[in-house]
Amino acid sequence: METSPTEASRESTDPHDGESDRSAVVPSSSWVALDEAVDRENRLFDGDLARRAGVTETVITDFATGWVAAGNRAENSTLDAKELMALQGSELTVLACAGKNRVDHTGLQYNYYLNSCNTSKLVSAIAVGAGAAAIAAVIMAATGVGAVAAGIVAGALTIAGGVIGMCSSKGRGIVAHIIQYTNVVWCNNQ
């Protein structure tokens, strides 16, 4: 069953009932499974593939919601309708987006560039209390980076959520920098 953004409004408004805290750390095995559940060519996330690999329903829902909010498709998963509406409320036309989306590596430092539209989605996701998997899906969709790396950045940016607003204050998007093998993260605007 494929889920599109328009179908999300028919989904449960609280798919996280009775499940663990969404801010909990997502195991690295789940990030690998999420990455393998994404068909990049067709921009499709399959919740069944992640589920069979042992990913929890909360993480699958969060990831699918972020993935669909970033303009992709998901199947065999539930979307968080409230979160999706909040993330899509930040939707701007592609022509109005300033900055670039990409990732590069300089020495021990990785640089994750998000244009102004994807930065707006990121800020919205943090503001509505989205899970790390939803935030990682936005980063993954924008930059093409794998789920493991996107998860590390998402976790660090969630902790430093208030700083993202300052980094994006010029409206050109952000660059999130992370030192490899550490939790040292900082950002600035493009």
Write the layout of secondary structure elements.
Blueprint: E1 2-3, H1 28-36, E2 38-39, E3 44-46, H2 47-52, H3 57-69, E4 73-75, H4 81-88, E5 102-106, E6 109-114, H5 116-127, H6 132-143, H7 147-159, H8 161-167, E7 174-179, E8 185-189
Parallel strand pairs: 3-4
Antiparallel strand pairs: 1-4, 2-3, 5-6, 6-7, 7-8
Helix pairs in contact: 3-4, 3-6, 4-5, 5-6, 6-7
In short:
By secondary structure, this protein is of the alpha+beta class. 42% of the residues lie in helices and 17% in strands.
Can you put this structure into words, describing what you see?
The chain has 190 residues and is α+β, with helices and mostly antiparallel strands. It has one domain. 42% of the residues lie in helices and 17% in strands. The chain has helices spanning 28-36, 47-52, 57-69, 81-88, 116-127, 132-143, 147-159, 161-167, and strands spanning 2-3, 38-39, 44-46, 73-75, 102-106, 109-114, 174-179, 185-189. The strands form two sheets. Strands 1-4-3-2 form a four-stranded mixed sheet. A four-stranded antiparallel sheet has the order 5-6-7-8. Mean pLDDT is 82; it is low at 3-20.
